[in-house]
Specification:
By secondary structure, the protein is an all-alpha fold. Helix content is 70%, strand content 0%. It is built from eight helices and no strands. Helix 2 packs parallel to helix 4. It is globular. The mean pLDDT is 91.
C-alpha cells in the first residue's frame, strides 16, 4: 500500500511543522498532502486535519499559545489552491466536487445525522477493540492532561487527535451512506499513533 509510507511521512512533517512552523516545513506538509490526495482522493480529510492541528495546539497551550500567524503560509496556500480549483472547475462547467474523481459522488448529500453518528460510534469501537483498548485509553488520558505535558508531547497529541478525529468522521459518514459496514482498512493507518501514545503515557 503506497499510501501508508506517505501517511507516515506526513505525520512526521506535521509534527515538525507544529513544533517549529517554518515556511519550508509547512510547504513540505502541503506537498505531502497533495501526494496523499493524488494517491487516494478520499484522504482530503487529512488536509482538514492539517489545518485543524495548529488550532488544537493553540487551544492546548492556553496561556502560552504559539501565534497562529506563523501558520499563514499553510492557511493561505490551502485557501488559494481551493479557490483555484473552484474557479477552474466552474469554468469547465463542472462541479468542484469532480476533483475527487470516483469519490465525487460522496459530495451529493443524503447524509443523516443519526446514521452518521451510529457509524462513527461503531468505527470508534472497532478502532478501540483492534488496539486492545489500552492504547486508545492512553490517548484519551494524554488529551485530558494535554496542558500539563511537555511540549513535544503536546505537539504529538494535537497532530494525532486532529488526524484521528477527522478520519473517523470521514469514514463513519462514508459507511453510513455507501458501504454500511466497518471500514477498518481506512483506519488502521492511525493505529501506530495510539501505540506511541501508550508508550509515552507509560514513560511519563
Amino acid at each position: 500500500n503506497v499510501f501508508y509510507p506517505i501517511f507516515v511521512w506526513l505525520m512526521f512533517a506535521l509534527v515538525c511543522a507544529l513544533e517549529r512552523p517554518t515556511l519550508r516545513r509547512q510547504l513540505v506538509v502541503l506537498a505531502l498532502c497533495a501526494l496523499a490526495f493524488v494517491t487516494r482522493a478520499q484522504t482530503v480529510a487529512l488536509v482538514v486535519a492539517v489545518l485543524t492541528a495548529p488550532l488544537v495546539l493553540a487551544w492546548i497551550e492556553r496561556g502560552r499559545p504559539r501565534r497562529l500567524s506563523a501558520f499563514r503560509p499553510l492557511y493561505g496556500t490551502v485557501g488559494l489552491v481551493a479557490l483555484l480549483v473552484v474557479v477552474v472547475e466552474v469554468v469547465r462547467g463542472r462541479s468542484p466536487a469532480q476533483v475527487l474523481g470516483n469519490y465525487s459522488v460522496t459530495s451529493n448529500g443524503g447524509y443523516h445525522v443519526w446514521p452518521v453518528l451510529k457509524w462513527i460510534v461503531l468505527h470508534v469501537a472497532e478502532l478501540d477493540l483492534s488496539l486492545w483498548i489500552l492504547p486508545f485509553a492512553a490517548l484519551i488520558v494524554l488529551v485530558a492532561n494535554a496542558r500539563h505535558l511537555d511540549r513535544p508531547l503536546r505537539v504529538f497529541v494535537a497532530a494525532t487527535t486532529s488526524v484521528s478525529v477527522w478520519l473517523l468522521l470521514e469514514v463513519g459518514a462514508f459507511a453510513s451512506q455507501y458501504s454500511q459496514r466497518i471500514e477498518e482498512r481506512n483506519l488502521f493507518y492511525v493505529a501506530p499513533l495510539f501505540v506511541i501514545a501508550l508508550l509515552a503515557w507509560i514513560e511519563r
